[in-house]
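Q: Could you write out the predicted structure for this multi-component system? I'm mainly interested in how the pieces pack against one another.
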Amino acid sequence: MNNTDLPIDEKSVVISIKNLKKSFGSLTVLNGVNLDILQGENIAVLGRSGSGKSVLIKIIAGLLKPDSGSVKVLGQEVDKISAKELQALRLKLGFSFQSSALYDSMTVRGNLEFPLVRNKRNLTKKEVNEAIEGVLDDVGLLDAINQMPSELSGGQRKESALPVP
Ligand SMILES: Nc1ncnc2c1ncn2[C@@H]1O[C@H](COP(=O)(O)OP(=O)(O)OP(=O)(O)O)[C@@H](O)[C@H]1O
Ligand SMILES: [Mg+2]
């Protein structure tokens, strides 16, 4: 059975947002957002510039705090968990910034290696290399592994800024 045919229950809901509100001063950006994203679903959030798409994703990733409402990711309320729990949860989230967050002075390999080594200290050098080469191969960028971000196209920069699982 396809996941989309399943009844919505806690098990299949990966991201659950209820009555989410966020304002900056007098500017109301999110005014009661409700959204359930199920395992295996691909969701695109559309809206004009400044309508709050990035604010929504930053709240999901725990980078911004909601004013009210509930945001659960993999069953955990991102606003209520400790910094350590949030860090562990972030390792399970893929997040690409709107402007690719690459270190200009590091090669593509260096950019992928830095967070991987920092966050998963138990990986061997071989495992790190395999993970990096695997993810670059997946997006057709293996040949660019030793290139600097300035040598990549905009699309390639975004692809190489995706986190290594
Ligand atoms: N940290 C912040 N402090 C104050 N205002 C903010 C902050 N972040 C976003 N905003 C405001 O919230 C509104 C929504 O911004 P957001 O970045 O979510 O837009 P967006 O939908 O992603 O737009 P775009 O399509 O241009 O990327 C904008 O008016 C923006 O100025
Ligand atoms: Mg945006």
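A: Regarding packing and overall arrangement: Residues 125-138 form the longest helix (14 residues).
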